[in-house]
Design goal:
The chain is an alpha+beta fold and 161 residues long. The chain is built from 2 helices and 9 strands. An 8-stranded antiparallel barrel has the order 1-3-4-5-6-7-8-9. The chain is globular.
Length: 161
């Protein structure tokens, strides 16, 4: 075997190995996303919120809900009856977990809101920038002037019939 043929076969083997490693990692990521979607499934009720420095306790925050089902999400304000339906995606491989909601505004315009999020059992923390195109928040806070929203949700108790 010539050196050139040997090098080509080693290079091909390396590409196959890298491709297999990437496919395995992607499959692992898909499994993590599926598991996280299952853990998020259901209705969540806001128990506290802070928007650009304005803090609200449980009583003022409770009308705000979010429901995850499959790849869809529904955000609602039960006081006003305002409901927004869309989809969501998860990115779990970075420094922070990212949840992105996508809603339609009008006939064609899509609005994407990117949150850093943390779920621990029946508690869900989400934080986002209120202005489009801004970087993800580096921390879970929304002090005055930050133009961020920080929300804490608890899983809704299932009603017994």
């Amino acid at each position: 075997m010539t050196a050139r043929v040997l090098f080509a076969s080693q290079l091909a083997a390396a590409f196959l190995l890298v491709g297999w490693a990437l496919a395995t990692a992607a499959a692992g990521d898909d499994d993590k996303v599926k598991a996280e979607r299952k853990a998020l499934e259901g209705k969540w009720v806001c128990v506290s919120s802070e928007v650009n420095g304005v803090k609200r306790g449980e009583k003022e925050s409770a009308p705000q809900t979010i429901v995850f089902k499959g790849e869809s999400c529904t955000q609602a304000d039960e006081d006003t009856g305002h409901v927004v339906k869309g989809t969501y995606s998860l990115a779990l491989s970075g420094k922070r977990k990212v949840l992105t909601t996508t809603f339609k505004s009008g006939e064609t315009k899509e609005i994407h809101v990117h949150y850093i999020y943390e779920r621990s059992g029946d508690t869900l923390k989400m934080c986002c920038n209120l202005l489009p195109g801004k970087e993800l928040p580096a921390e879970y806070s929304a002090p005055e002037g930050s133009k961020r929203a920080y929300l804490v949700f608890k899983r809704a108790k299932e009603k017994k019939d």
